[in-house]
Amino acid sequence: MAAIKPADLQAEISGAVARTEITDIHTHLFTPQFGSLLLWGIDDLLTYHYLVAETFRWINLPYQEFWQMPQQAQAGLIWRTLFVEHSPVSEACRGVLTVLDALGLDVSKRDLNSYRGYFAECTTDAYLDRVLKISGVSHMVMTNDPFVPEEYAVWKQGYTEDPRFSTALRMDTLLNNWPGGCRALRDWGYNVDVDAAAATKAEVRRFLSDWIGRMRPLYLAVSLPPTFNWPEESPRSWLLADCVLPVAADHGLPLAMMIGVKKLVNPELRLAGDSEAKAAIEPVENLCAAYPGNKFLLTMLARENQHEACVAARKFRNLFPFGCWWFMNNPLLINELTRMRLELLGLSHVPQHSDARVLDQLIYKWAHFRPILAGVLTDKYADLLRTGWVVTREEIERDVRGLLGENFWAFLRR
Q1: Is residue 260 a part of any domain in this protein?
Q2: Which residues are 24's β-sheet partners?
Q3: Do residue 241 and residue 301 come from a single domain?
Q4: Which of 66, 119, 386, 398 satisfies CB 3.0 to 4.6 Å to 41 for a cystine?
Q5: For residue 153, what are the β-bridge partners?
Q6: Model pLDDT for residues 11-50, shown as the tens digit of each residue
Q7: Nearest to 303 by CA among 379, 369, 228, 226
Q8: Longest CA pairwise span in the chain (Å)
Q9: CA distance 168 to 254
Q10: pLDDT band at 1, cuts 50/70/90?
Q11: What's the pTM value of the predicted model, to 2 decimals?
Q12: 308 within domain boundaries
């Protein structure tokens, strides 16, 4: 194994990052079997909630008038506002252009109808294949929520596995809206009540085990508000302690906690109306300490939380940080957080996930992330070389494979 020379370091790392296939450990994508739940194409891309929120910074159109427009009209308004009347410099706008360019479409023409014509000729299966090839994503994890009626119907009819996709059991309704979750469980034949009776807890555990058996998820997941606390006197607290974590331990599944989202601070924006705030790290530490036999995945939404989340991961080996979630998914913050994690945790994390809700976003989110990762790693390995340490191509490739997915698989096997 030959040592890498300083002059060759950047090229070696960039090459390794470019050719390594990715496991995208958190997406909102679906297999084609889920039909319209799998979003793709230029109109879905343009009406993504990042761009909706950005458009309303320029227009005075009443919100309800916008929502009553057909999707193509919404997309056309967004295109005209953000790409024609103003330069598309935001990360979300740049992402649309990265997708179009990667597909071989001429972005200099600014011709929305011609782009629509391209997508009209695509089939879902063929386009999925092309996106995965361009993005270098070999495997992705869905977000699967049985409380969504359209998704529940697919699972009850019988899901046919796609080897490129894994599942994750989402529990937001169960943990964040227990009265609503309780009603749904009763409708599905589980004998539950809103109180914390032992019989109710047993039925919730049965529900979770049933759906784990049906979905075969890689992990359980929940999005949590910045006010999240544990322990406390609340349904979420006893549901975690007496239902979710015991079942997760029995099945060897991590709990993925995504903390910091403030839902619908502007409800008129719908999905675009969510915000973020700093959360407390103590509940995460309390859970990791109280349940050393459980594994926890963690991503946090506020920039202010990132340092203490890294420090917490240094203290608890059952805590695995991942990704740059939502409002953290901007180049400045990705660069900062990736450096922070490497400096505090070494290689024992996964620095990114796409969080893609539209299939096309796999292209731009990973195309934008790879150069950032390569640049950060070049600096870090250069620091090693200056000490006299020897770095080989094989070691670089091993480390990059870990950061782009293998570390996640290793954490699941622990």
Answers
A1: yes
A2: 140
A3: yes
A4: 119
A5: none
A6: 999 999 999 999 999 999 999 999 999 999 999 999 999 9
A7: 226
A8: 67
A9: 10
A10: confident
A11: 0.97
A12: yes
Domain that holds residue 48: 42-121
Q: What residue spans of 177-275 are helical by DSSP H?
A: 178-187, 198-215, 235-239, 245-251
Rounded to whole angstroms, how far apart are CA atoms 369 and 317?
A: 26
Angle between helices 91-102 and 361-386 (to 10 degrees): 100
Beta-carbon neighbour count of residue 109 at 10 Å? 10
**pLDDT tens digits for 227-265?**
999 999 999 999 999 999 999 999 999 999 999 999 999
Tokens of 149: 């009626």
Signed CA dihedral, 182, 223, 226, 406: sign only: positive
Cα angle: 154, vertex 52, 104; to 5 degrees? 80
Residue 323, sorted as left (phi over 0), alpha (psi -120 to 50) or beta, turns out to be left
Cα 224–chain centre separation: 14
Q: Tell me, yes or no, whether 358 lies in a domain.
A: no
Q: Give one word for 163, left, alpha or beta, with left for phi > 0 and alpha for psi -120 to 50.
A: alpha
Residues comprising the chain, all counted: 414
HSE at residue 177, side-chain half, CA atoms within 13 A, is 12
Q: Which CATH number do you get for residue 269?
A: 3.20.20.140
In a domain, 54, yes or no: yes
- Centre a 10 Å sphere on the Cβ of residue 397 and count the other Cβ atoms it contains: 17
Residues 147 and 112 in one domain: no
**Contact between residue 387 and residue 366 where contact means Cβ atoms under 8 Å apart:** no
Q: What is the mean pLDDT of the chain?
A: 98
Tell me if 323 sits within 8 A of 96, measured CB to CB: no
CATH no. for residue 111?
1.10.2020.10
